[in-house]
Amino acid sequence: MDKKFVIVLVALVLSITCTVGVTLAWLVSTPDPVINTFTVGDVVIELDESDVDDSDKDNDTTDRDKANSYKLIPGATYVKDPIVHVKKTSELCWVFVKLDNGLLDIVDGLATASDSDPANSVYTIEAQILNNGWTKLEDGVYYKQGVDASAATGEYLDLPVFEGFTLKTDADVDAYKSAKITVTAYAIQDEGIDTAAKAWEALNN
Known about the structure:
It contains 3 helices and 11 strands. The protein has 205 residues and is α+β, with helices and mostly antiparallel strands.
């Protein structure tokens, strides 16, 4: 290659580089920053029932209470109306109730106005729970899925469990002096849990 041509070629390249260097300008813009704010959601529930034994000593049996004492009488009907209250600010959630019924063998059901004979009553505690919109997962465990408390008119969304029970007329109540009916409530977020079995497992773990 001719030495003169090489020099010209190099000069041309340098000339182009210099020209670009002179005319190039960065287009710069500084927007407002994007700020992400994260809050922690929660699920809040409470459980209570009517104060039928006036254990709070204020002579108002319309109050709600955490526990009651009952005197067992064959054929008698008792008010026991546990309600799960889900706080309005709670996230969409699964709600469970677990029933441990120590009187199961001597409970007929709940005698109603349309069925005043307890011996013929089929309105069992489980039937009441199902009638209140709960779904049975397994014996003694019931749930509601996708509970949305945001539409509650008050501070809490109320989820009644059952209303009461009637003892069999031939119940051997002496054998059940220490028996209890225990209701326990649980709640867990709905997000990311697609079955009741998984939700219940997560709660128990």
